[in-house]
Amino acid sequence: MQTPSFDFVMIHVSDLEASLNFFTNVLGFERIAEGDGPGFRQLTGKGGIEFGLMQADGQRAKPGDIEIYVKTDDIHAMREAIIGKGVAAGPVMDRPFGQIVPLPTVPDGVRVIAMGNPAK
To answer: Most buried among 11, 64, 81, 84, using CB within 10 Å?
Structure first.
């Protein structure tokens, strides 16, 4: 399995517009409007990875929860390598931005999602 790279961070927030205001108007990050969706705002900064603000729904995620997306060129090989180490991994799922595999929550509660390229 190749070493993955950090690709995206999702921050679940209690007030989407207040959080967007803080990250853009206070800290100076730029909004990527074409990446926005219902309850979601995408942002970028200088030389870093893009990140998203997601309205917390209280069921799937609560305010303050963070998801880290790690990128690989071969999502199937990564999934098999993880399972081979005795760690549970969800199925490969297609999303508009790429294929993902949900992984178990790390001990401190951060969710990690493996991500590959969109299915061909």
So the answer is: 11
Answer whether residue 39 is part of any domain.
Answer: yes
pTM as predicted? 0.83
Domain region containing 105: 5-115
* DSSP label of 34: G
pLDDT in tens, 40-81: 999 999 887 899 999 998 788 899 999 999 999 999 999 999
Structural Rg of the chain based on CA atoms: 15
Question: From start to end of 29-110, where are the E strands?
Answer: 30-31, 40-44, 50-55, 66-71, 93-95, 98-102
For tokens 């603000």, the residue is 53
Residue 25 in domain: yes
CA distance 113 to 30: 24
CATH of the domain at 22: 3.10.180.10
